[in-house]
Structures are given as structure tokens and as C-alpha cells.
Amino acid sequence: MKYKANQLLAALQNPSLGEGQGWVHHTPLLLLSLLLGLALSSCHYDETLEVCTLSVRLVYPENSVDPYAGARVELRDALASVFVDSTDASGMATFTVPPGIYEASTSEVHETYDYRYIFNGVKSLIIVQPDSMNRVDMKLKMSKKRIVH
Fold first, then answer.
1. How far apart are CA 121 and CA 142, in angstroms?
2. Alpha-carbon gap, residue 86 to 73, rounded angstroms
3. CA–CA separation, 81 vs 97, rounded Å?
4. How confident is the chain (149 residues) per 10-residue block, as mean pLDDT?
5. Rounded to whole angstroms, how far apart are CA atoms 68 and 84?
6. How far apart are CA 26 and CA 32, in angstroms?
């Protein structure tokens, strides 16, 4: 039995390569070749993130105020990431976000000389995707309080 084990070991070491030149002595070189091959053939992927532009227009109730610049609008995705923008003079907030499903909200206080207006609005299930217009209108609810001078 010991003789067969020695024959097997001798065959594995491949004595035709010469004394001590079998695969056992070339193991570090083989491992290095394998690791180098894996490193060179590793997969490559594009890390660019596709983004879309979403415009949210605040729609104020009739007989309240005209759209104004500076109203804060928040956009929240399904992972609770929050994007914030302010409206321009036409009441439009513009976001650049990855495709997904979002919820827009605002809560804003606007004062004139005679009144304090409180506006609130929420628009849910906004689907943002590259092949759509990605523009939504958010109707606002209003509370109004007279300021006494």
C-alpha cells in the first residue's frame, strides 16, 4: 500500500520535468497566474446614474395670492431620501432625481400687509421616468388669518 502511495505522489510531481520540478513546486506561480487572470477578466460596469428632471407647479386657490418665488417644496422617494427646492416666480420647483416613485409636499406661510396665508399641499405617487414629461401640479389648501394693525 505504501508503494502505491509513493507511485501516486511521484506521478503527481511529474518526474519527467526533473527532480523537484513537479506541480507541487509550481503552486505559487499557478496561484499568481490565476489571481492575475481573475483581476484582468473582472467585470466592468458603468457607474453613471440616470437622472430625470421633475417640475412641480404649486397651484394656489382662487382669490388668494399669485405664485411667488421662494416657497419650499420637498420631494421624498420610497427610501425616504428628501430632495428640496424653492419655487421660482411662476410657482415652479424643479428637481433632478433618479427614476422612481415620489411624494411632493409643501407647507408655507406667506404674509401680505393685511393677511397671513398658510398653504399646505401633498401630491403622492408621482412616477418619474426618462420617457415621460415629469411635470405635476400640486393643488394647495389654504388657511387665511387677518392681521390687525
1. 9
2. 6
3. 11
4. 56 54 63 70 70 96 91 94 96 96 95 93 95 93 91
5. 17
6. 10
* 119 burial level (CB within 10 Å; 0-12, 13-18, 19+): buried
According to DSSP H, which parts of 13-135 are helical?
27-40
Tell me the helix, strand and coil percentages in the chain, rounded to 5.
20, 40, 35
pLDDT score, position 2: 55
Burial class (CB in 10 A: 0-12, 13-18, 19+), 122: middle
Q: What is the C-alpha separation between 44 and 74, in angstroms, rounded? A: 36
Which CA distances in Å does 36 have to 24, 43, 44?
Answer: 19, 14, 16
Q: Which residue intervals of the chain are DSSP H helices?
A: 2-12, 27-40
